[in-house]
Amino acid sequence: MTTTRRDDATAQPSLPRQIHARLREAIMRGEYPQGHRLAEVRIADELDVSRVPLREAVPMLEMEGFVVTSPRRGAVVTTWTSELIHDLFDLREVLEVGAAGLAARAVGRGAPVEPIERALQHSHAVVEAGDPYEIAEASTLFHQAIVETTGNALMQASMRSVSGRVQWLFTLTSELDVHDAFHDHVELAAAIGVGNERMAEALAFAHIERDREPSFAVLHQPITT
Question: DSSP letter string over 168-220?
């Protein structure tokens, strides 16, 4: 008797992972707003799933920073605070600025720049379509492509651990000028493409820092230092 094993690349995600993806997008799109309690019975009914896989999906959301859980209230959508915004921008500057330089170095030594260019092209198409969630997703994928190009496994793992929160913040601040952001991406990809480490780092820092204060304004948070 022989068995057929499906290739991992084409295998359907497990039900808990499908639920996780649906809730993750719903949170980012504002269908479940900040501070909203994810009542287990109601969410299970809305998604037409049983409560068992839902309970498996919630810890994934908590690990990514989308919800916080407590014994009494269950899962509650995370509320963005001034501290959380600063923390994410500070982490992005440490991680992504360094990654931009390392990616440029890797390209200068022969690593392919095509993944970054493909992510840039996809981002351009999505910007023209105008959906805030998809724009945020494409922008996040562009930054992930830069980190992937470094070849640094620890950097890649770190970026994956925060990419959900990065995309969420991008979605929330979608009213900022996306065309300016895309122009930054074009310049950053060009610097990496010619292997200019210092220029890539400078552009990455300026790109990230430019949106720090405007993000506070969009989210109606006081700017604390």
Answer: HHHHHTTTS-HHHHHHHHHHHHHHHHTT-HHHHHHHHHHHHHHTHHHHHHHTT
137-154 tens-digit pLDDT = 999 999 999 999 999 999
Structure tokens, 9: 């690349």
CB under 8 Å to 171, separation ≥6 — which residues?
28, 29, 132, 133, 136
Helices (H), 130-152: 132-150
DSSP 19-82: HHHHHHHHHHTTSS-TT-B--HHHHHHHHT--HHHHHHHHHHHHHTTSEEEETTTEEEEPPP-H
User: How many other C-beta atoms can be found within 10 angstroms of the C-beta atom of residue 124?
Assistant: 13
Q: pLDDT for 42-92, tens place per residue? A: 999 999 999 999 999 999 999 999 999 988 888 999 999 999 999 999 999
pTM of the model: 0.88
Instruction: Answer yes or no: are the C-beta atoms of 78 and 34 closer than 8 Å.
Output: yes
User: Both tokens of residue 170?
Assistant: 């991008």
Residues 79 and 34: beta-carbon distance below 8 Å: yes
